[in-house]
């Protein structure tokens, strides 16, 4: 076996337990997406991947991918995986708050296997810190760029290759190159050789490495690929999690594969279109989503007979909130019904706008909508554009909750703090949400987030963080912030006062009390 691969999602915290109320999945969904084409090759016995440790049934293949949350709590699992598989290719995916964890894991793998393991870093952090100018002719680096940090000697050169952008086909090719050279005792992968081999791979990406202290990068040629032909993550890796909102059903993650971000460009959002790029192959996005829903249904029935099926649509906004695609999905489900319950994300205003088509989707399985809420007094944080709507934000939020409760939709909310609001305003949001719940039966607070300043391809309010330190290290904060989807004590929005532990505990006490009434 010339190719042996494992993949990990880097941990966000240096120590501590997994949060009990943050909205999380046991499946490393981003890794599944990035690795799915390679898994497809393995599954179909094609090329080097067809002779790798991934050329096994999906239930076994998924054991080679590890979702890590806490370095101290889960390093032993990582070490066991390394020792068992003895990989010559390690794929590491990292969000920005997980960057220190990615470095730590790469160091451990290097200590165990030296230069015989090839380590690739990808994910949102690389994509937001290594980017091009508008003409795609020049590579630019944020202060947090791993390549920049390595070349400046601020971190060890523990990554052989760093990939920014669409990596599905790059990963597959990297594996082929390693397999080709693995049997040669006198040869290993030089930086120049790998960059040369991947130069014609499809997708919009940047790849780079550091050699002799100098950064070397190449920009993809932008060769397009057919998103309709991408394999679904569920089919390649199976499903191992269940969201409690679906009451005991296993829950697959579904994508329309129309892009990594949102159609809107709100200044406070890390998924805005100016950072994540425009949507792609929109006209067939509903077909792709339907196919993934069908695959989730079939995989659960095949792998875990007797379990009910559900899916959560991971689009920033379901099908971009586009009338044409929502209508098309409704029509497809009308003609080809699936026994599956599903939900997904909308903005408050998109939910109001698309109420009619959402209503039509309810009898076809849609039963859950997830929305984000921020301060109801945008003027107190210097103003915040919600892009659409002419009446107050709080009025629009209540309208959405009221109308969706009437049509039998469960509404979950994620509340974002840390934009500059006061503790009094935070408590007011919680009080208002509780009032709505008593009146309408909705919403349920599913998670909190404390606003983090992301690199955002340089659109970072001028802070220029390098993101080398753990986002939360103080013991007293780790315990309470683990219940947040994302939070940081050092990478906060500029000019925002950090919360005290007492303030965070006050918020948690209210949330725990609210859970009792669910």
Commentary on this structure:
There is one protein chain. The protein is 37% helix and 15% strand. It is an alpha/beta fold. Among the domains are: 5-219; 229-345, no CATH class. The strands form 3 sheets. Strands 2-1-3-4-7-8-9 form a 7-stranded mixed sheet, with helices on both faces. Strand 5 (130-132) and strand 6 form a beta hairpin. Helix 1 (29-43) packs across helix 7 (168-182) and helix 12 packs parallel to helix 14.
Mean of residue pLDDT values: 91
Q: In one word, what is the shape?
A: globular
Helix content: 25-40%
- Order of strands, main sheet, comes to 2-1-3-4-7-8-9
End-to-end separation in angstroms reads 52 Å
Strand portion, in percent? Answer: 15-25%
Which key features would you list for this structure?
alpha/beta; 37% helix; globular
Brief characterization of the structure:
With about 525 residues, this protein is an alpha/beta fold. It contains 18 helices and 15 strands.
Topology:
Elements: E1 5-9, H1 29-43, H2 58-61, E2 65-67, H3 71-85, E3 89-93, H4 99-113, E4 118-122, H5 124-129, E5 130-132, E6 139-141, H6 146-151, E7 161-165, H7 168-182, H8 191-198, E8 205-211, E9 214-219, H9 233-237, E10 250-254, H10 273-276, H11 285-303, E11 309-313, H12 323-335, E12 341-345, H13 348-353, H14 355-361, E13 366-373, H15 393-406, E14 410-417, H16 423-440, E15 444-450, H17 475-481, H18 501-516
Parallel strand pairs: 1-2, 1-3, 3-4, 4-7, 10-11, 11-12, 12-13, 13-14, 14-15
Antiparallel strand pairs: 5-6, 7-8, 8-9
């Amino acid at each position: 076996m010339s190719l042996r691969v494992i993949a990990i999602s880097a941990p966000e915290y240096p120590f501590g337990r997994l949060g009990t109320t943050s909205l999380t999945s046991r499946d490393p969904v981003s890794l599944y997406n990035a690795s799915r084409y390679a898994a497809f090759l393995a599954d179909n016995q094609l090329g080097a991947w067809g002779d790798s440790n991934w050329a096994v049934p999906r239930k076994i293949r998924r054991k080679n991918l590890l979702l890590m949350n806490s370095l101290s709590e889960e390093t032993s699992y990582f070490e066991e995986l390394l020792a068992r598989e003895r990989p010559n290719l390690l794929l590491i995916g990292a969000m920005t708050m997980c960057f220190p964890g990615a470095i730590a894991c790469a160091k451990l793998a290097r200590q165990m296997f030296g230069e015989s393991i090839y380590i690739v870093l990808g994910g949102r952090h690389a994509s937001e810190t290594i980017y091009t100018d508008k003409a795609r002719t020049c590579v630019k680096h944020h202060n947090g760029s791993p390549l920049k940090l390595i070349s400046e000697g601020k971190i060890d050169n523990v990554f052989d290759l760093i990939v920014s952008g669409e990596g599905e086909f790059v990963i597959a090719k990297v594996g082929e190159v390693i397999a080709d050279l693995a049997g040669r005792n006198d040869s290993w992968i030089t930086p120049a050789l790998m960059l040369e081999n991947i130069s014609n791979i499809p997708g919009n990406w940047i790849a780079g490495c550091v050699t002799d202290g100098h950064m070397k990068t190449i920009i993809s040629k932008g060769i397009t690929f057919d998103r309709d032909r991408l394999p679904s993550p569920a089919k390649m890796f199976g499903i191992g999690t269940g969201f409690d909102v679906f009451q005991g059903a296993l829950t697959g993650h579904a994508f329309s594969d129309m892009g990594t971000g949102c159609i809107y460009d709100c200044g406070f959002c890390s998924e805005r279109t100016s950072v994540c790029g425009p949507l792609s192959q929109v006209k067939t996005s509903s077909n792709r989503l339907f196919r993934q829903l069908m695959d989730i249904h079939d995989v659960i029935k095949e792998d875990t007979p007797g379990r009910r099926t559900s899916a959560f649509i991971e689009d920033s906004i379901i099908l971009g909130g586009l009338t044409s695609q929502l209508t098309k999905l409704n029509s497809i489900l009308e003609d080809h019904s699936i026994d599956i319950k599903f939900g997904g994300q909308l903005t408050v205003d998109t939910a109001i706008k698309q109420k009619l088509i959402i209503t039509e989707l309810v009898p076809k399985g849609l039963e859950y909508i997830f929305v984000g809420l921020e301060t109801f007094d945008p003027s107190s944080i210097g103003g915040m554009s919600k892009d659409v709507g002419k009446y107050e934000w709080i009025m629009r939020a209540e309208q959405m909750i009221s109308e969706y409760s009437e049509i039998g939709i469960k509404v979950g909310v994620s509340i974002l703090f840390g934009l500059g609001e006061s503790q009094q305003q935070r408590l007011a949001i919680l009080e208002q949400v509780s009032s709505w719940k008593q009146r309408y039966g909705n919403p349920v607070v599913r998670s909190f987030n404390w606003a983090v300043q992301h690199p955002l391809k340089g659109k970072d309010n001028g802070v220029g963080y390098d993101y080398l330190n753990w986002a939360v290290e103080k013991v007293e904060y780790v315990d309470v912030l683990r219940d947040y989807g994302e939070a940081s004590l050092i990478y906060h929005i500029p000019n925002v006062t950090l919360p005290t532990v007492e303030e965070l505990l006050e918020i948690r006490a209210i949330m725990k009390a609210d859970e009792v009434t669910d």
